[in-house]
Amino acid sequence: MRHEFPIRVYYEDTDLGGIVYYANYLKFIERARTEWVRALGIDQTRLKAEEGILFAVRRIEADYLKPARFDDELVVETRFEAATGARIMIEQTVLRQGERLFQAHVTLVCLTESGHAARVPPSVRARIVPALH
Length: 133
Known about the structure:
This protein has helices at residues 22-39, 44-51, 122-128; strands at residues 2-8, 53-64, 73-83, 87-96, 99-112, 117-118. It is of the alpha+beta class. It has one domain: Roll (Thiol Ester Dehydrase, Chain A).
């Protein structure tokens, strides 16, 4: 499954040069991941309350390819790549009219509220893993 999340670049997203400040791409992809999980029918608040499970970013490998600028209309694409017992790997790409500007490979982990590693709950795995097909 490929999930698309639209973003418009606001003045506050840019640096002195008028281009998107590099750290803001991480904010853009975070918002898109939240909406991807929501679109899969996973309620993160309920997951924390009922199972004591949180998602956390373990690793990001990011490539900044081309700059985005004020008022650009962007799309963040999120795609499932793989899953292990406690990890979910996804690819996220920021596009402007189909042109790739930023790409990241993100590894998410499941944690308990105390910060210990936890397995991906079966209910979550059933919604995320079929997203590949």
